[in-house]
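Supplementary Methods. Inverse-folding protocol.

Structures were first reduced to a discrete structure-token string of length 629. This string, shown here, constituted the complete conditioning input.
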């Protein structure tokens, strides 16, 4: 089918906007490629250092001078359940590449923090910044210049975007991403949500809550809801950086190890052929495909930020208007928790990524003429793997959904539009995930209750002060203020208020997690309050209208919001976010970070007038206290 005209229009606009930055990026990658293989540029002493710790057999292979060497960057730790399986992956990779006459080395590791552990804790204020730290660590690992291709081992929230950004600095190489897969299903998601809501109301004790959580998060693999981690995997496949349909295969299976070995051998093949370098796989078209895949499956709102930074690493410039317009023509094909009751294992069983890829391609919603690690075209991603007599075999995925309550064709979607929308008005620009919000809850007009911290908002909830129609405004949560933490700890309280029949909405310059649920939430408000954004002018009792259907976020009855003086951030809040739990190490990040719509990143200079809409003057109350910390 012909490409949807809106997809074509948005892609053309992105291409034109990115003309200079993309050309500059490709020029640098061409120069790196043309300078020759890294191993040929290293002196004998350099090369000897690179292989001093390797086996005799690997040293003999390396001495040949013509055999590919694969650099592995791993985000392994055994605190993240999704990353625990990576402990064994390097051995699987080394064995696989030796079989095809090559070598592989762990070039370096990256930090990988768990948002599930740090939710509601001070460490969450490092979460978003950890993405850029991971990108930098990836750059450090690959800068040895001893590799002919690379493999990235990562799954979870900030880790895959960081690996993606860092690897693109070496985009003259082919790069293959190898995931670990989800854990088996635990207790039903609806049951988990019920216990959380009861605990928020004091109806059950902590022991009951803990038993419920352990029943949900119970083994190696990603959490099984469709949050940021699993959204990452969907995007890596539609972006052409995975082997097809590898995202949602369980870690503790022979199939998973076979796929890891196959990914390693594919990295060797690409190193030898010089094809499918990452700079060519990641293009304007593939970025659009990743956005559409996210929208079609109701993926994480975190990617409204991450995708901007990820694309920028390849010289591609996107913004929330692009995402919003793509969402307007993207059919919602999947209902996976929190956008439905099923988990990613049920999604995979119903047809999974192969079904989504084929449906989007046949409906004209994605570009099919893209470069992937499998070669030219997207069609390889219509297949899925299986093990037959110990051999990895590829076959066409199902042509019809096996459970239409979870996965539907583009001709009969759950919704004719995607899961993300832009809302804007005198309060700035923000995004809202509508795929989890019932239509009757998408328009809220109510008085504001303004807070600076999650703790204050939760205390007001516990004291019964929010038992009314209310728009909860939580400001000074942006990247400059405190690193833009996820505010998922508020979700149970907001859900309880909504279930009581109140009209409830949430507005913040912070983030919600990929598990953002049924309460309408205008998040990532940009510019942020600490940078002089409009939320700094809002007062308790102001009537706020959030209309996700019309794309509106505005005050009602306020003639000129900006005529008011800017709110002053409390000293306790400011100082509390500047030190402790490692936060003092990121003072420079908070000082120079870009806006949420510009990717909330410290890695790139942002061209004037691109994204972010930063025409609001800085807040004079901003003080970088980390200098004296």
């Amino acid at each position: 089918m012909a490409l949807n005209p809106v997809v074509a229009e948005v892609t053309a606009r992105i291409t034109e906007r990115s003309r200079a930055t993309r050309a500059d990026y490709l020029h640098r990658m061409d120069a790196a490629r043309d300078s020759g293989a890294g191993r040929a540029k290293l002196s004998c002493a350099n090369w000897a250092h690179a292989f001093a710790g390797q086996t005799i057999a690997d040293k003999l292979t390396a001495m040949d001078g013509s055999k590919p060497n694969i650099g592995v960057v791993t985000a392994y730790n055994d605190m993240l359940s999704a990353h625990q399986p990576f402990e064994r992956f390097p051995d699987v990779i080394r064995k696989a590449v030796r079989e095809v006459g090559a070598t592989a080395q762990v070039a370096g590791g990256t930090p990988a923090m768990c948002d599930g552990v740090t939710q509601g804790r001070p460490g969450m204020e490092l979460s978003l910044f950890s993405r850029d730290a991971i990108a930098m660590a990836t750059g450090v690992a690959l800068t040895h210049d001893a590799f002919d291709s690379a493999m990235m081992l990562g799954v979870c929230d900030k880790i895959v975007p960081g690996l993606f950004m860092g690897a693109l600095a070496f985009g003259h190489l082919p790069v293959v991403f190898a995931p670990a897969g989800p854990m088996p299903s635990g207790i039903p998601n609806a049951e988990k949500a019920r216990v959380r809501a009861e605990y928020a109301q004091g109806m059950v004790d902590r022991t009951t809550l803990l038993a419920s959580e352990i029943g949900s998060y119970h083994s190696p693999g990603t959490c099984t809801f469709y949050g940021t981690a699993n959204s990452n995997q969907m995007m890596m496949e539609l972006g052409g950086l995975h082997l097809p349909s590898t995202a949602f295969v369980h870690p503790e299976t022979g199939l998973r190890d076979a796929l890891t070995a196959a990914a390693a051998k594919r990295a060797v093949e690409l190193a030898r052929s010089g094809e499918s370098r990452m700079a060519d796989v990641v293009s304007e078209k593939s970025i659009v495909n990743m956005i559409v895949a996210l929208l079609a499956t109701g993926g994480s709102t975190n990617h409204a930020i991450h995708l901007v930074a990820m694309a920028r690493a390849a010289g591609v410039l996107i913004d929330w208007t692009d995402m919003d317009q793509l969402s307007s023509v993207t059919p919602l094909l999947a209902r996976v928790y929190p956008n439905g009751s099923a988990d990613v294992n049920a999604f995979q069983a119903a047809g999974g990524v192969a079904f989504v890829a084929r449906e989007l391609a046949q409906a004209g919603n994605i570009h099919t003429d893209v470069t992937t690690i499998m070669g030219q075209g997207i069609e390889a991603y219509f297949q899925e793997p299986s093990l037959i007599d110990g051999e990895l075999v590829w076959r066409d995925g199902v042509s019809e959904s096996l459970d239409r309550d979870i996965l539907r064709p583009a001709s009969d979607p759950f919704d004719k539009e995607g899961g993300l929308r832009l809302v804007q008005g005198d309060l700035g620009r923000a995004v809202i995930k509508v795929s989890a919000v019932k239509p009757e809850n998408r328009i809220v007009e109510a008085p504001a209750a303004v807070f600076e911290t999650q703790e204050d908002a939760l205390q007001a909830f516990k004291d019964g002060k929010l038992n009314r129609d209310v728009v909860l405004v939580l400001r000074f949560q942006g990247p400059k203020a405190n690193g833009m933490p996820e505010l998922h700890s508020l979700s149970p309280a907001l859900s309880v208020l909504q279930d009581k029949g109140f009209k409830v909405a949430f507005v913040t310059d912070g983030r919600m997690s990929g598990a953002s649920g049924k309460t309408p939430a205008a998040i990532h408000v940009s510019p942020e309050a600490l940078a002089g954004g409009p939320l700094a002018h809002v007062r308790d009792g102001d009537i706020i209208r959030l209309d996700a259907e019309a794309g509106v976020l505005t005050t009602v009855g306020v003639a000129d919001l900006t005529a008011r003086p800017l709110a002053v951030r409390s000293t306790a809040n400011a100082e509390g976010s500047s030190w402790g739990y490692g936060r003092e190490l990121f003072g420079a990040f908070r000082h120079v970070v870009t806006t949420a719509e510009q990717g909330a990143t410290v890695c790139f200079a942002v061209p004037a007038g691109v994204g972010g809409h930063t025409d609001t003057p800085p807040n004079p109350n901003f003080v970088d206290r980390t200098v004296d910390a």
